[in-house]
């Protein structure tokens, strides 16, 4: 179930895990960096430039979140919104997309639900975007894991990232879901994998401008030609036009 409102919601805080976006060959346990920054929600991290993940934001996290310049916050849990959450989003012009995902502890995530979430995340018009659940572990972890599958990450790398955020409450059901999920089930959506580079993300949102310089040069040449032609006396123009060939 998906609900959209023009403002926002809430959460917890503490440490924040940031996944390194290194190359496949360099990926290892050491590639997961755990950082602590004042004001970050629990389990805050960058999925790709312009797409972030976290636990449910608390009021104390708002100054940090505001710095992200978000356009969209995606909430995956069905709970009463904290009193300050919707006003915070409305004040900062953040669209709230509420897509209810049932807990993954006792059931798997329906393909339809995952598809709806991924469509929102992969629509660059929604970026910068923050996706969150309660603790930023299981629901969010599964969504990010499927996003990684679309990016063609290797399975061990995907699970390493999931476990780094879910620790110490790694769910076998989540691991099985992630491992068994087939991206072919999403082909009908035509999703373009998220880019892991900041430059690519910027170019995708802000396409290159037209070659204005080339147009300006062409216009200048035409202007010079017209100026020179109008400076020639009319009788000389007539001579130039009728000058015999070879003379």
Throw out a few tags for this protein.
alpha/beta, two-stranded antiparallel sheet, 247 residues, Protein-Tyrosine Phosphatase, Chain A, disordered N terminus, membrane, elongated, 6-stranded mixed sheet
Report on the architecture of this protein.
Belongs to the protein-tyrosine phosphatase family. Atypical dual-specificity phosphatase Siw14-like subfamily. It is found in: Cytoplasm. Keywords: Cytoplasm, Hydrolase, Membrane, Transmembrane, Transmembrane helix. It is an enzyme of class 3 (hydrolase). With 247 residues, the protein is an alpha/beta fold. The protein has a domain of 158 residues: Protein tyrosine phosphatase superfamily (Protein-Tyrosine Phosphatase, Chain A, Alpha-Beta Complex). Helix content is 38%, strand content 13%. The strands form two sheets. Strands 1-7-6-8-5-4 form a six-stranded mixed β-sheet, with helices on both faces. Strands 2-3 form a two-stranded antiparallel sheet. Strand 6, helix 2 and strand 7 form a beta-alpha-beta unit. Helix 4 runs antiparallel to helix 5. The relative contact order is 0.14.
Describe this structure in a few short sentences.
By secondary structure, the protein is of the alpha/beta class.
Low-confidence stretches: 1-36, 199-211
Quick one: biggest sheet? 6 strands, mixed
**Secondary-structure class:** alpha/beta
Question: Helical region count?
Answer: 9
**CATH level-1 class of the domain at 45-202:** Alpha Beta
Provide mean pLDDT, rounded: 78
The neighbouring-strand order within the major sheet is 1-7-6-8-5-4
CATH fold field value of the domain at 45-202: Protein-Tyrosine Phosphatase, Chain A
Characterize the overall form: elongated
Tell me what portion of residues adopts beta-strand conformation. Answer: 5-15%
CATH homologous group name of the domain at 45-202: Protein tyrosine phosphatase superfamily
Keywords: Cytoplasm, Hydrolase, Membrane, Transmembrane, Transmembrane helix
Domain Tyrosine-protein phosphatase: 43-190
Transmembrane segments: 212-232
InterPro entries: Prot-tyrosine_phosphatase-like, Siw14-like, Tyr_Pase_AS, Tyr_Pase_dom, TYR_PHOSPHATASE_DUAL_dom
